[in-house]
Structures are given as structure tokens and as C-alpha cells.
């Protein structure tokens, strides 16, 4: 399976995948240097590093979120609730997440490595044939293919989603119930119907990034309390639905893009249904 990005070629990233650059300073935008809080200290650390240059670079590529004249007239004439407006905090979060999708994996970042290592450990522990070690995890090697990357260096697979793709893989492995995660891992390893789990997850992130950039996730963000929360809930529903259809239809790798296209359609038309199912 190849990585495919539904919105055309990936946005230029700030550095080559896996390149080494100095550890980023924390954001200086607030008194304590934090804009975003998260119960997971690893995520909070990454979200509050300084991405001001990337945020400025992607700002012009983001579609403004504002109700159309038709939406306003319909809400007034039919006494429907007013369309949601994007608050300053939500706009900043959307800007940050789009920026993260352009930030390459950094070998010098201990926090990024911690996310990647955690994802590997969670998935490797559930690989049914015990073909890889959970405790040993070199930065490069064939063991990454067992957990669903395309080659020996997982950083190259994040070229279209940046570290946002890594964040979503980490959150999936961390937040899914253990039984559900085990089912997904076992299904992804069951030949001849196996599929590269990490690559599928990164493709789902790529679809969500397009929706995020185009301003199509606002209602979900308002419902869940933030864009990242919305994206993670939608991501979780998508990966579960992907596996359900994969199993029911006895799919092989050649069917992967077809299911991803279905998910993209659902994300366009049925976000609330997906949120309710997660």
C-alpha cells in the first residue's frame, strides 16, 4: 500500500524527515509559556513547543470558518440555532494542528521519540506471532514494518502528515480499549488479509488534515471541546470502521484505498454519526 494524500501533494515541510535540528523552545505566548493543556504530559510538551514560524506559514492556506449568508438566513427563517463561529482559541488550535502537519519528525526530540516508542511498544505487545521484541526498539530496522510502517525508518511515512500523524497513532494506541486494539492488531497481521496498520492510520490523519484545513471540523470541535479531541474521536471511529469493513469484505491490500475513500465521504457527510460511535 502506498501513502496517498487526498488533497494533492503534501505541503512542504520545514525539514527533511528524520533530520536533526535543535530542540524547540516552549511557546512564550502566555505567562507560563503554555497555550494548550492536555492530561498527557508528553502531548502537552509537544503542543506547547514554539511553532510560530510554521503557524505563520500555513495561516494563508487555511479556509476561514464563517457561516454563509444562506446559513444565516436559514437559521433566522426557520428559527434554527445560529451557526457556530470559530472562537479565537479554536482558531489558534486549528492553526497549530495544521502547522504540526508540516513539521517533520525530529531525531533530536526526546518527546517525539517517546511517542513513537510508546506506539511501537503498545502494538508490538499484541502482535500474535511474537515476531518482534517489545523491549528492544532500535530507531531503524525491520521491526517497524511489523507494526505497520512501510520500511525500516518510520519517519519517512510521516512526510504528508508531519508529527500530527505520529500524535494520532500514539493517541489511538493509548486511548482505544485494550481488547479493541488487540483485535485491530491481530486483523492487520492475518495473512493474506493483512494490512499496514501505521500506514492506514497515517492515511486517515491525512484525510482529517484536509477537513481541518478547509474548516470542515468546527461543529465536531465545538461538540467535543476542541479540534484535537474531535480529530482523535473521528480517527478512532474511522479505524474501527475500517477494520469492520475489512473483516466483513475479506479485503486485501488492493482494497485499502477504496475503504479510505468511503471514510473520507463519511467524514464529509456524517461526522456526528462517527462521533457518536466512538
TrEMBL record:
It comes from Haemonchus placei (Barber's pole worm). This is ELMO domain-containing protein. It holds the Pfam family ELMO_CED12. Residues 1-34 are annotated as: Disordered. Residues 111-271 form the ELMO domain. It comes from the Eukaryota.
Amino acid at each position: 500500500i502506498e501513502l496517498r494524500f487526498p488533497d494533492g501533494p503534501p505541503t512542504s515541510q520545514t525539514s527533511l524527515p528524520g533530520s536533526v535540528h535543535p530542540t524547540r523552545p516552549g511557546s512564550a505566548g502566555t505567562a507560563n509559556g503554555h497555550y494548550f493543556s492536555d492530561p498527557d504530559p508528553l502531548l502537552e510538551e509537544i503542543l506547547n513547543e514554539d511553532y510560530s514560524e510554521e503557524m505563520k506559514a500555513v495561516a494563508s492556506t487555511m479556509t476561514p470558518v464563517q457561516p454563509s449568508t444562506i446559513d444565516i438566513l436559514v437559521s433566522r427563517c426557520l428559527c434554527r440555532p445560529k451557526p457556530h463561529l470559530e472562537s479565537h482559541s479554536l482558531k489558534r488550535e486549528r492553526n497549530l494542528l495544521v502547522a504540526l502537519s508540516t513539521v517533520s519528525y525530529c531525531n533530536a526530540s526526546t518527546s517525539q521519540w517517546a511517542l513513537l516508542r510508546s506506539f511501537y511498544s503498545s502494538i508490538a505487545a499484541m502482535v500474535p506471532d511474537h515476531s518482534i521484541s517489545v523491549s528492544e526498539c532500535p530507531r531503524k530496522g525491520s521491526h517497524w514494518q511489523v507494526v505497520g510502517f512501510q520500511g525500516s525508518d518510520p519517519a519517512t511515512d510521516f512526510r504528508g502528515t508531519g508529527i500530527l500523524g505520529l500524535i494520532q497513532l500514539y493517541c489511538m494506541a493509548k486511548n482505544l480499549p485494550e481488547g479493541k486494539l488487540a483485535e485491530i492488531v491481530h486483523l492487520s497481521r492475518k495473512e493474506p488479509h493483512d494490512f499496514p496498520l501505521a500506514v492506514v492510520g497515517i492515511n486517515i490523519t491525512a484525510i482529517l488534515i484536509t477537513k481541518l484545513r478547509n474548516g470542515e471540523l468546527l461543529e465536531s470541535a465545538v461538540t467535543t471541546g476542541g479540534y484535537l479531541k474531535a480529530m482523535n474521536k473521528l480517527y478512532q471511529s474511522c479505524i474501527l470502521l475500517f477494520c469492520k469493513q475489512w473483516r466483513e469484505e475479506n479485503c486485501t491490500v488492493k482494497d485499502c484505498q477504496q475503504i479510505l475513500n468511503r471514510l473520507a465521504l463519511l467524514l464529509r457527510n456524517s461526522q456526528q454519526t462517527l462521533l457518536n460511535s466512538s
